[in-house]
Amino acid sequence: MGLPERIAKIRERVGMNQAELAARVTGSYRSATASSWESGESTPTGEAMMAFVREFPWLDGHWLLTGEGEMERTDPTRAERLVRKFRELLDPIPDADVEPLDG
Fold first, then answer.
1. Is residue 69 part of a domain?
2. 102 φ/ψ sector (left φ>0, alpha ψ -120 to 50, else beta)
3. Best exposed site among 7, 65, 85, 96 by fewest CB in 10 Å?
4. Is the pLDDT of residue 76 over 90?
5. pLDDT tens digits for range 58-70
6. How far is CA 52 from CA 8, 69, 100, in A?
7. 98 part of a folded domain
8. Rounded to whole angstroms, how far apart are CA atoms 21 and 29?
9. In angstroms, how far is CA 1 from the centroid of its own chain?
């Protein structure tokens, strides 16, 4: 699968049209940008490629660049690990484990 197909797959995964994807990645709401990427007429700049990974943290940058491996990261990012830890900490404590405060 070439880069044009990978970009189309990302766009489909996030449920955006070409103009929305271009706006998210480049800051410019131009469907022609993403359309030319998907048709192979042009290639995203290095800055745009970095923006893909920044804007979609689940995206594996190696896959985006090479097509090798899986589209979605298998190792959680630091932010994902923090969110998971906060959820664990905020889970309600079972009543059986709580001692009454008034003794």
1. yes
2. alpha
3. 96
4. no
5. 999 999 999 999 9
6. 12, 17, 51
7. no
8. 8
9. 19
Rounded to two decimals, the pTM is 0.70
| 77: CB partners within 8 A, 6+ apart | 57
Identity (one letter) of the amino acid at 47? E
Domains of the chain: total: 1
Given this model, what pLDDT does residue 74 score?
Answer: 76
Sign of the CA dihedral 99, 100, 101, 103? negative
Taking a C-beta distance cutoff of 8 angstroms, is the pair 80, 50 a contact?
Answer: no
HEC string of 32-45 equals HHHHHHHHCCCCCC
pLDDT band at 94 (very low <50, low <70, confident <90, very high): low
Q: What is the DSSP letter of 28?
A: -
Q: Residue 23 is part of a domain; what is its CATH number? A: 1.10.260.40
- Does residue 103 lie within any of the structural domains? no
